[in-house]
Amino acid sequence: MLTINDNLAALGAQNNLNATDSALATSVSQLSSGLQIQTAADDPAGYSIAQELQYEINGYQASVSNAQNAVSVLQTTQGALNQQAGILQQMNTVATQAANSQVQGNATASAADQQEFSALQSQLDQIANSTTYAGVNLLNGSVTSLTFQVGPENSASNQVAVALPTTLSASLAVAAASVSVSSLGSAQAAISAVQAAINSLAGKAATVGAAQNQVQALANNITVAQQNLTAAHANLVDVNVAAATSRYTSLSILEQSGVTVLAQAQQLPQLALKLI
User: Fold this and answer.
1) CATH number at residue 94
2) Residue 92 and residue 192 in one domain
3) Which residues of the chain have pLDDT under 50?
4) What is d(CA 5, CA 98) in angstroms, rounded to the nearest whole number?
């Protein structure tokens, strides 16, 4: 129907062109950002899920770092325990040597053994007091445990507590005040005390080693969890470039066609005038 006052064909073409232009703008935005969900208006439900996934991803990322720090703490502790184990083994050698009655009959040799034994006792305490990580003393008993956040939630299953041993000479029952090798009897008693300390320290080291293995396993697990969540988030919010490019091409052609049709529709009233 040809009319002069109302050009219904042009109005229809204009509405279609507006819809095409809006869809094309969305396609351009997706391709330029790489995201199919940029705001809640794009997909309210998807946006909500994406935000939840994102905070879990961020939490796991920080948790991986926390777990790695925990492993470093335990490695530092383990290294110091190894040094102390070596010192105790040397103390056992000195005590065994000093328990020889022939040595005890030699005042110079006995004094030398005692001097070495005392130095080794001091080394035990020096290591216990100087082994720190980020300002936290690990072996002198001032800090008995550390709690690491290894998950994105505030729950016990997302946290791991690591016990720290106390390895001062007094806690190992080989302190200078109670153990010496200055006499035959004290040297014999020192053998038993030092061997007990070696066993005690070995148990503490085993506990630290087990905790290190546990934390390392947790670090591996949360790394995998983070990767899986990242993949899920990407599937939800990232644009399918191939599909978006195809749609962009189609909409571009449709927009050009719409402009051409609208231009022709706007000429229809002119045709109607020819009938007058």
Assistant:
1) 1.20.1330.10
2) yes
3) none
4) 121
Cα(150)–Cα(169) distance, integer angstroms: 34
List the one residue out of 56, 57, 66, 62 whose CA is nearest residue 215: 66
pLDDT computed for residue 118 by the predictor: 96
**57 domain residue, yes or no:** no
pTM greater than 0.85 (yes/no): no
Say how many domains are in the chain: 2
Residue 35's pLDDT is 79
pLDDT at residue 81, rounded to an integer: 97
- Supply the pLDDT for residue 123: 97
**Looking at the domain assignment, is residue 147 inside a domain?**
yes
Per-residue pLDDT at 275: 67
> Are residues 94 and 211 part of one domain?
yes
Strand bridging mode 136-137 / 145-149: unpaired
Would residue 165 be called left, alpha or beta, if left means φ above 0 and alpha means ψ between -120 and 50 degrees?
Answer: beta
Domain extent for 228: 65-236
Cα–Cα dist 21/14, whole Å: 10
Query: What's residue 1's pLDDT?
Result: 61
Q: Helix, strand, or coil here: 155?
A: coil
So what's the pLDDT on residue 2?
62
Rounded alpha-carbon distances, angstroms, from residue 109 to 32, 93, 94, 129, 274: 84, 14, 11, 30, 132
Cβ neighbours around 15 below 10 Å, total: 12
3-state secondary structure of 136: strand
207 and 163 Cβ atoms separated by less than 8 Å:
yes
* DSSP secondary structure string for all residues of 8-65: HHHHHHHHHHHHHHHHHHHHHHHHHHSBS--STTT-HHHHHHHHHHHHHHHHHHHHHH
Dist CA 108 CA 111 (whole Å)? 5
- 23 and 83 belong to one structural domain: no
75 and 212 assigned to the same domain: yes
